[in-house]
Amino acid sequence: MLWDPTHGPFDLHDLVTLGGSSSEAAAINDAGRVVGWASDQGGTLHGFCLDLAGGTVRHLGGTVESLATGVNEAGLVIGRYKYSWLTDHPLAWNPAADAVADLNDGISQDAGWTMFEAWGVNDTGQVTGFGTAVIDGIYHQRGYLLTPRPAS
Questions:
Q1: Is the distance from CB of 42 to CB of 10 less than 8 angstroms?
Q2: Total-model pTM
Q3: Domain boundaries, the chain
Q4: CB–CB of 15/2 below 8 Å?
Q5: What's the rounded Cα separation, in Å, for the pair 141 and 41?
Q6: DSSP secondary structure string for all residues of 79-113
Q7: Taking the domain 2-146, which CATH number applies?
Q8: What does residue 72 show for φ and ψ, rounded to 5 degrees?
């Protein structure tokens, strides 16, 4: 639901639905892009990005579950998707270009990290979330801050 002082409450479900019965909004930016997830008729959740100003909505496609949990002012959406039956991976999504990337692909396999979810993104592209870090040979769940490499 969206609420503003002029119009009061407004249910977003009809705008973001994929035919399922549930939807959740997770974040909004200053440009009026709302991100979250909606279920399809089979109950699978798919991330969405709703542009309130333009009235357009885009969904993360595919057959696996996905959630959109954050959006920055440039429109970069972050979240997670079902990587395997037991494991989620964090994603970065540019809805305008319909480009999706697994954030684990951007870190060295030697780093000792596997990231599972992304929850926040700021305007410089830094992403927060949680994953597993190998410390002295032992796996620990940890929060992370992922800072993108400067453009070359």
A1: no
A2: 0.90
A3: 2-146
A4: no
A5: 34
A6: EEEE-SSS-EEEEEEETTTTEEEEGGGGS-GGG-E
A7: 2.130.10.150
A8: -100, 180
